[in-house]
Amino acid sequence: MAAIGISGIEKNYGPIPVLRGIDLDIADGEFVVLVGPSGCGKSTLLRLIAGLEAIDRGELRIAGRRVNELAPKDRDLAMVFQSYALYPHMTVADNMSYALRLRRTPKDKVAAALAAASAKLGLERLTERKPRALSGGQRQRVAMGRAIVRHPQAFLFDEPLSNLDARLREQMRFEIRKLHRDLGATSVYVTHDQIEAMTMADRIVAMNEGVIQQVGTPAELYDTPANLFVAGFIGSPAMNVLQGEVVAGEGGTTVRIGGAVLASVSPGTRPGPVTLGVRPERIALTAPGDGATATVELVEPTGLATIVHLDLGGQPVKTFTTERLSLKAGEPVGLRLEAGGLSLFAPETGERLVAAKA
């Protein structure tokens, strides 16, 4: 396996910049997820690593070796695509072993690699079937098995679960993560699904408009988003974003919305207009008059928990609680924030304010 180093990489399609100075170091054996909305450049970056696109500027190193000019076959990487890309006329065994047979690998080694990969992926009884006789999840396992038998330096995953239903995606997330643990393989995984990113990654790379917005562990991006884009993209339900004001007075420095005190913050926080970020589960519902007062707009029971949509001074707010609530639309409730549950962002730039912790 190998580390991947990305330095100042840029990519343009004609006059349109797609990647703008990407710097990223991926450690040997690390599972890194590139996440962001459609068109943010994450799949383009993966294709540059694979060698399927040419790099306009910057340097790409795999295991310390510059590979900008190397053809894909010479980079020793394995890619798993969204579309599976299986040969329909070949059996599972032939699809998985095709690359080894092209290299004229001895038959005994092909058989051993095929048996090991099939066992890891639960495909032992399916090796003589053709793709049309497999489910979507089974086809995706075959695509992963084809990558595993090659023993590459790194695995590249391009939204491999997008074609599966919700239950299969959950199962395959577990299987891919378990496979990574067993192989210790360097893996780069592209998705637009922040749930996949949060549950699978050692580190997440959040991208938008061809720029890396933040790199960190799932907990770091969730708890301390670097800007409003990360705050809104990571988390389900999404972080509440509100407009308020920081006021310094004799009783301390507070954040207010419409005159109501929402929380106390660090005395070093700059007074004036501010954008607030609050995770729905960090808001406690209380009796009217206890904390800031809001009005119930909609209640969404999900079985596991309840999402309550509120109006706070003309601004929408969501709360997320495991309590079974019997609230009605139009009913007033009180809101209180949990300690440390508030993020503050500069209204002008959307960047996180450091001196914001309560």
CATH class of the largest domain: Alpha Beta
Strand content: 35-45%
Unreliable residue stretches: none
Q: CATH architecture of the largest domain, please?
A: 3-Layer(aba) Sandwich
The tally of helices reads 8
How large is the radius of gyration? Answer: 25 Å
Strand arrangement within the widest β-sheet reads 6-7-8-3-9-10
**What is the number of independent domains?**
2
Q: Helix and strand string, N-terminal first? A: EEEHEEEHHHEHEHEEHHEEEEEEEEEE
**What is the helix content?**
10-25%
Integer average pLDDT: 90
Q: What structural class do the secondary elements suggest? A: alpha+beta
Gross morphology? elongated
Give the termini distance in whole angstroms. 44 Å
How would the blueprint of this fold be written?
Layout: E1 4-13, E2 16-26, E3 31-35, H1 42-50, E4 57-62, E5 65-66, E6 77-80, H2 92-102, H3 107-121, H4 136-148, E7 154-158, H5 166-183, E8 186-191, H6 194-200, E9 203-208, E10 211-216, H7 218-223, H8 228-233, E11 240-249, E12 252-257, E13 260-264, E14 272-278, E15 283-286, E16 292-301, E17 306-312, E18 315-321, E19 332-337, E20 342-345
Parallel strand pairs: 3-8, 3-9, 6-7, 7-8
Antiparallel strand pairs: 1-2, 1-4, 4-5, 9-10, 11-12, 11-14, 12-13, 14-20, 15-19, 16-17, 16-19, 17-18
Helix pairs in contact: 2-3, 2-4, 3-4
